[in-house]
Amino acid sequence: MATVATKTNPVAWFEIPVRDIERARRFYEKVFGVELTPEDMGPYKMTFFPWTDGAPGAAGTLIKGETYEPSHGGTLVYFSVDDIDETLLKINANGGKTILPKTDIGQYGFIAHFEDTEGNRVAIHAMK
Fold this sequence. Notes:
By secondary structure, the protein is α/β, with parallel strands linked by helices. 17% of the residues lie in helices and 34% in strands.
């Protein structure tokens, strides 16, 4: 039986399926204020979120390929943000839509869910 490494968080990588990689890239760059890096890997088109070695959190990419279909079902990726209200405004202004408004989860802060431009259900988390 495989086990998770004991000195690391268990999630190391995520992939968010997209239909239109350029539209999705623009959406995520505008919402989160980051620059994504495009790269083709065989039959897959990918655009990578920035990664800082040694910093907390998982790395990931937007991905377009034959077996990748955007959806509301399945695994839910949470992005850390400073301000949920401000981020939801950016989401809605850039073609996304709020699914679950800002929700208090007690001592663990706040969450919200949104639909991106590709039809994926994605989430955000903040402590304030």
